[in-house]
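User: Second chain of the day. Same drill as before.
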Amino acid sequence: MIVLESASIGAKFGGRVPVSDTRAARELYEFGPFRVDAAREMLLRDDNPIPLPPKAFQVLLVLLRNNQELVTKDDLMKEVWPDTFVEETNLSRNIFLLRKALGESPQEHRYILTVPGRGYRLAETVRLVPEQDLSIVSSTQTNIRVELTESTPRRWLPYAISVAVVSLGAIAAVLWFVRSRPTRLTAKDTVVIADFANSTGDPVFDTTLRQGLSIQLTQSPYLGLISDERVQHTLKLMGRPADTRLTPEVARGVCERTGGAAILEPSIAKLGTAYVLGLRARNCRNGDVLDEEQAQAAKKEDVISILSQLAGKLRNRLGESLPAIDQHNTPLSEATTSSLDALRAYSLGWQSTFGPAGAGEAVPFFERAIELDPNFVSAYAMLGRVYQDMGENALAADNTTKAYRLRDRTSDPEKFFIESNYHLTVTGDLEKARQVAELWGRTYPRDNRPYALLSFTYQDLGRYDNSIEAGKTAIEIDRDLAPGYANLAWAYVLSDRLSEAERTIRQAEERNLEFPDLYILLYDIAFLKDDQPGMQRAVQMAIGKAGGEHWIAQRETDVLAFSGRVKEARLKSQHAIQLAQHAGQPERAALYQSGVAAREALFGNTSEARLFATSALRSSKDRDVEYGAAFALLLIRDEATAKPILADLEKRFPEDTFVKFSYLPTLRAISALNHGNPEQALHELEPEAPYDFQIAGSWAGFFGDMYPVYIRGMAQLALRDGNAAAVEFQKLIDHRGIVASDPIGALAILRQAQALAIAGQKEQSEQTWQHFFSLWANADPDTPILKSARSEHASSH
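Assistant: Same format as last time:
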């Protein structure tokens, strides 16, 4: 080892600052304004990559290695095409391309000189950068210590000495070498992907390649990407439209605002019939280049595969281990599609899911992607997710099933997404959905999606504390994740922790986040606090919002029915149903109809219950639609119509948590009560007991929550066990956050009065009777259940 020490005019370094790592040595050359990286086959000028075909690059490399010496045409051809006979015209063609890349004109050959009849040589002096063997060991204000390993070529000793001899330019060069090495990101750093600099003139690459790169890098458990939703939200905060093009400058602004560490600046350029792709990683705080990669695709159809290769190299150079890359690196053509046009349609659909018109705007784009590539797994998966968000459950299940069958043709994170949604949407097996989401979260701890999904799934299971923790984790990963705030706020409401729900909503509002659930959350919280002005404000906020208007209109019907204003509620429901139909959501409309049928049956309005149930079943065979309709039909004792529905539910949903442990037990219990067998009803409800406080699968239609508990209480009333019945009805009264404005909450008060009377608690019973009559002071007097209640109360006094 040779050790050189010299006075220093540089800054102080803390400890050893390596110029290189443990990788194999790399050849770095400089001549004129150009820099050449042999290992990565990159030609750069002012840190900007210059497209160059592989053979032209090899020609340049031979000339560089001979440093201003003549290289004959024969030697060049032997070096560049060692195992192949080629015509001299091939060499001439690559010399022409090389000169063009270097900016030479036909009249002036500044860098490459032709020696007539012999060959070529470089006109510029070549400087070899001994990057691998030079490192700064330590430095103080007075000296700098430099080491050269024994492998350092002795001919570079004068260069090293010049560094040690206090030359400002030399020290600057050393520092530049330090900065030029790829900087490894940490497991906490996040990255923003800029839009591709597309100089090809082909619009198919616009948005498409960025989406492809994002999908490819999302496979990394190590890298953390700023989500597209967060990017669009940040652009709004910057006073820019959400669809602003992410130039490097704009992307850097987004990166700084989101606390990111780096931006990726991708590019694609045309070179003859070939395409040159480049990736540059840049520190978003100081603008330093962290790494650069470049590769060439021979034809347009190869661009996607070359992009995959570049992404894999970048992941490694930014710090991800090779074993991790090997384990999670499905080629983009397999992870998505080999069709650029299909990927472009998918990209447009993906962008539309965050648009102001709502997720429904994305449907035609995903459908177009599938039309162009019938095996495009991610397009099926996203179409299923969008339909689920729209309440179109049958369409959601159909597309999610197609994605599930093709799931082996996609990336690991996409498989997790598909499998978890499949169990939520198709099989309904909530425990399997939970297990998949938990494994997803452990494998990709920087992805917010598994935690958002877990928060939602835990609510379905009635595990609200777990839902709260998962919701908090999702927000910690992405502070601008609107669904994360929605799930967390819902978990608080369902746990009757209204102040914390309001605080969560305020946090979302402070970040200018909006989501469809927001209006319902505000409306429900205001209802639970008996805040009439707050309810009206929520209604006004929902007007004109995609999906929000008909959803909150249906919620208003529940509030009307909760106070016994059944006729007004019925008319309002018709309005909500029409709004959903006009919005192109027939299944959501059928879900509303099914919920109204259940409500009318609970109130004893037989003809109306049958009418709404029949209409719902004509429109949809959705699981929750069938449950609501069957619930209504059994309450009005139409066993003949309801029986085939039970058989269909059992046949089509053998693994479904709701069907197995809630829907079928509840429906069978009602049937047992109809046949005068309350003991059998209680037996049928035994499997449901662990799920008493879960929310129903029909969340989009606002019915079904704690219905099994209500039916269990009715069975206890039939057995004249007042104390046991009172326990069940008290569950509904105590868990107002779950029941919310569902009229079953009001009926629980009536049934509690009956239970307490049977139990001999006359004073408490009378207080509860008066509570109910006060609540229904403005109720429709001809409502059957009210007439029956007044008659029963009068006879008991």
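DSSP finds 37 helices and 17 strands in the chain.

User: Great, on to the next one.
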